[in-house]
Amino acid sequence: MSDDKPTRRDILRPLHLLGIALGCGVFAAIVTLVSTGAFTARVNSAIANGTYDGLTPIALGLVVGGGAFIVTLLFLAMLILVVDPADVTKTVDRPVLYDPEPADDADSETPGTSASS
């Protein structure tokens, strides 16, 4: 394992976030296309004959995929706003949700206790 530890700025690059949102949008579009029967002969012949009522499966897939892309991008942007700007340049040494290391607890008091007791 290398000693190069990525910073939060390296992890949260905008192109990566766009890629994640694009992947979610494409996945939602494919699921919509498959579930509406866009690849079946019955639906395709109804579209070709002009007897298909409503939004075509391809148009619906584009709408759902675009909506999923936008919602995912907004959600990721809101999550980035949670990150403290001072933490952006710090290196990521360990998982974020782990308990604090014991050395950090020795310097601070626990809530509910006082130094005079």
Summarize the entry for a quick read.
By secondary structure, this protein is mainly α. Helix content is 58%, strand content 0%.
Could you please describe the fold and organization of this structure?
The chain is mainly α. Helix content is 58%, strand content 0%. The chain has five helices and no strands. The longest helix is centred in the middle third of the chain and has 26 residues, at 57-82. The mean pLDDT is 82.
Measured between the Cα atoms of the first and last residue, the distance is 46 Å
Helicity, in percent? 55-70%
Structural class call reads: mainly alpha
The radius of gyration over CA amounts to 25 Å
Largest sheet: none
**Morphology call:** rod-shaped
- Name the poorly predicted regions: none
Percent range for β-strand residues: under 5%
Number of strands: 0
Task: State mean pLDDT (0 to 100 scale).
Answer: 82
Order of helices and strands: HHHHH
Question: Counting H and I runs of at least 4 residues, what is the number of helices?
Answer: 5
Main attributes of the structure:
117 residues, 0% strand, 5 helices, mainly alpha
SSE inventory with pairings:
Elements: H1 8-11, H2 14-36, H3 41-49, H4 57-82, H5 102-107
Helix pairs in contact: 2-4
